[in-house]
Specification:
The protein is an alpha/beta fold. About 30% of the residues lie in helices and about 30% in strands. The chain has one domain: Flavodoxin domain (Rossmann fold), CATH 3.40.50.360. The protein contains four helices and six strands; from the N terminus they run βαβββαβαβα. The structure holds flavin mononucleotide. Flavin mononucleotide binds next to α1, β3 and β5.
Length: about 140
Amino acid sequence: MNIEVRFFSRGGHTKKVAEAIAEAAGVAPEAITVPFSKPVDLLFLGGGIYAGKPASEVLEYAKALSGGNVKRVAFFSTSMSPTNGFAAQVEENIANDIEVIEPAFHCPGQFLFFNRKRPKEEDLSKAKDFAAKTIHKLHPPT
Ligand SMILES: Cc1cc2nc3c(=O)[nH]c(=O)nc-3n(C[C@H](O)[C@H](O)[C@H](O)COP(=O)(O)O)c2cc1C
């Protein structure tokens, strides 16, 4: 199974989560500017929330994904608010032939005086668990 991790991170918080997910998946995390070298069975796609929305770069990226190249996607995000709508807003931009794996993963990300020092180690452990469970769902050990 080819797993890829792509993220968009202005302040580095989502990047930390991407690194944890990639570690659990045994792959390298990459920014969304890095293309795939082969078809993808599972893409972990993440970003932050800025003024209530995912970055336009992420929405454009999601729109350009093709079901011929990416079978499934699982979302992760960081934001100040726990109900950030990242997954729902990005999913609207995803082609119908790409399967969206639920649940998505949300992690608190520091913003001004909110969520100070998040993500912290405990958050990154949860991110690793999320990655392991998502992969396990698709590929249970025999
Ligand atoms: C300009 C700006 C606007 C933001 N707007 C929101 C927002 O509307 N809702 C929210 O929950 N978090 C908001 N945040 C917090 C970010 O989503 C949070 O810091 C996140 O971890 C950023 O991810 P990044 O460091 O990977 O870019 C905002 C942050 C910035 C810098």
